[in-house]
Amino acid sequence: MAKLARLKTPQLDFRFILSEFLLSKQADGISPRTLEDYRRHVNSFLRASPNISDYDSLYKAVIKYFSQPCSPGYRNIKLRYLRAFFNWCVEKGYIPANPTAGIKKAKEDIDNIRHVSLEEVKKLLQQPDKSTYTGLRDYCLMLVQIDTGVRPGELLQVRVSDLNLDSREIRIRPEVAKTRVGRTLAITPFTAQQIARFLRIRPEHWRDDVPLFASENGLTMDEKHWAKRIREYCKKAGIKVTPYGLRHTFAIEFLKAGGDPFSLQRILGYADLTMTRRYVRLSQDDIREVHEKASPVQKLQQMGKRAPRKLPGGVK
Fold first, then answer.
1. What keywords are annotated for this sequence in UniProt (predicted)?
2. How far apart are CA 95 and CA 98, in angstroms?
3. What proportion of the chain, given as a percentage, has pLDDT over 90?
4. Which of 8, 106, 284, 286 is positioned for an S-S bond with 72, CB 3.0–4.6 A?
């Protein structure tokens, strides 16, 4: 009966409904980053659609919202968050149906995955001033991202207690992982050495809950600040890449070096293989080049082109 009463409500107050939805998601234990993404995307829709009074006006507002031009990738992100929100609204009886149900995902161009070459990565790593706390911190942050492909938001919340230099591992705790599933990342000896060097200049009096790569004041760096610092280094190096671009670079280089998609999925912390398949497709050109060099058929052709043992005309 309560559900039917809600459906008869003439005025839909989505500001109130959104607050209830976010509390529900918070109780489910989703990450703060995902919670903030829900808030941002639903509020963006509500700001663009101020005159929603009933389901009919809601449906028209949704159609108009998704008819606005934007990149396929961003359109699909908006659709994913709004579809989840409206599914919850249907479940709670606020609306009779999901207005996004008939909207299809846009076809994304895999070439829009922004990554950089290893030569450009080398230029980027040369920019931080490693004689300072912030410079060495930023250098180590870049190294770990390129070495592991970890999400920036996860890495910025890693604590010293999550680090094991003896086994060369970094633990991503479940409460900071985007998928809420913890995982352990391996790092190379060189990365471990640079982190050990950084720890020697890190203030010893900081509490245990201070992140490993904290600000100079011992506070957690947010992703926007880290992205801004990357932009500054990129400007000096003459390249373009974002913190997530470093994650993409790791993924593509991992596959080019012979890593398998299933291992990549676990390392990157994806819930399924959807994004991993995009990396595989993007690295197909490199895989073709490797195949041409390694194929047994190619080797057989080369064997057939060997110079004959006997020279023509009986010359010895």
1. DNA recombination, DNA-binding
2. 7
3. 63
4. 106
**pLDDT over threshold 80, residue 285:** no
**Structural domain boundaries in the chain:** 2-107, 118-290
For the domain 2-107, what is the CATH code? 1.10.150.130
Give me the DSSP letters along 70-138. Answer: --HHHHHHHHHHHHHHHHHHHHTTSSSS-TTTTPPPPPPPGGGS----HHHHHHHHTSS-TTSHHHHHH
| Strand 183-186 versus strand 169-172 pairing type | antiparallel
Q: Is the dihedral of CA 204, 210, 211, 214 positive or negative?
A: negative
Distances (CA, A) of 296 to 284, 293, 301: 19, 9, 9
The per-residue pLDDT for range 97-126, each reduced to its tens digit, is 999 999 998 876 555 567 888 999 999 999
Architecture of domain 118-290: Orthogonal Bundle (1.10)
Q: 3-state DSSP call for residue 153?
A: helix
Closest CA to 100 of 72, 120, 73, 81: 81
Q: What is the pLDDT of residue 132?
A: 97
Quote the pLDDT of residue 269: 87
- Amino acid type, 116: V
d(CA 52, CA 81): 19
